[in-house]
Specification:
Layout (H helix, E strand, L loop, with lengths): L5 E10 L2 H17 L5 E7 L3 E4 L18 E4 L7 E3 L3 E7 L9 H18 L4 E2 L7 E3 L2 E11 L2 E9 L32 H16 L1 E5 L4
Parallel strand pairs: 1-2, 1-11, 3-4
Antiparallel strand pairs: 2-6, 3-5, 6-10, 7-8, 8-9, 9-10
Helix pairs in contact: 2-3
């Protein structure tokens, strides 16, 4: 008997300001709370330079005055501490109704990690989890951060995968509040790698891990 996969709309959205993407996610979430049968969504994009803080983030992890910063700083409803987004980093925002998968937030976080571990495996690299932490590490350096929000079992926010960004912005924070574990980018292992290439592998691995049929879609 042929397996029937749940459809998931894939938006390859390019470079989008953080606030625009946040409003887009909130709109998709609201629609799916009202109509739980709507298709799931995976948004893959990049952001101009921006710092974001989770709802309980500690300002002590900033090395600058948030009221006097040349880049935008936003406190949002996701979990986790401060992180940095910029071009060269693939950000993924899955809007999934976990009632169709598994109603367990730890399961969901591990699945997101698994997606990125499989992407690294495409390049012959071994991604790791660290006990007690969320994210993906490569040779003890963090290459992917994860922070989520779930309402009525519908997810928003997601992951940020450092492909080939300018890492200088990370020096202005203690990324994810972890002072003793440095961050890194995939380009340090694979010079010349591009976000366009990695996006394809993220989409493929996401479809495998979550068992969905991705349907590439354009934003209205």
């Amino acid at each position: 008997m042929e397996t029937v996969y749940r459809r998931c709309l894939l938006f390859n959205a390019g470079l989008i300001p953080y606030t625009d993407a946040l409003l887009w996610q909130r709109s998709l979430l609201k629609e799916r709370i009202l109509q739980p049968s709507l298709e799931d969504v995976l948004i893959l994009l990049e952001h101009p330079p921006v710092y974001t803080l989770g709802q309980g983030s500690n300002l002590n992890f900033l090395k600058f005055d948030p009221d006097n910063c040349k880049f935008d700083v936003h406190r949002v409803e996701r979990g986790g501490e401060v992180t940095y987004h910029c071009p060269g980093q693939v950000v993924g925002y899955p809007i999934l109704n976990l009632q169709y998968y598994c109603k367990d937030l730890h399961w969901y976080l591990r699945q997101l990690e698994e997606v990125l571990i499989r992407v690294l495996a495409v390049y012959g690299l071994t991604g790791d989890r660290l006990p007690g932490f969320t994210g993906v590490w490569l040779e003890s350096r963090k290459v992917a951060a994860i922070g989520i929000k779930v309402s009525r079992w519908i997810t928003m926010h997601g992951f940020a995968f450092n492909v080939c960004p300018d890492m200088a912005g990370f020096k202005q924070i203690i990324p994810c509040g972890i002072a003793d574990k440095p961050v890194a980018s995939l380009a340090e292992w694979i010079p010349g790698i591009t976000c366009e290439e990695v996006r394809v592998n993220i989409a493929d691995c996401f479809a495998e891990v979550f068992g969905v049929e991705l349907v590439e879609t354009m934003k209205d």
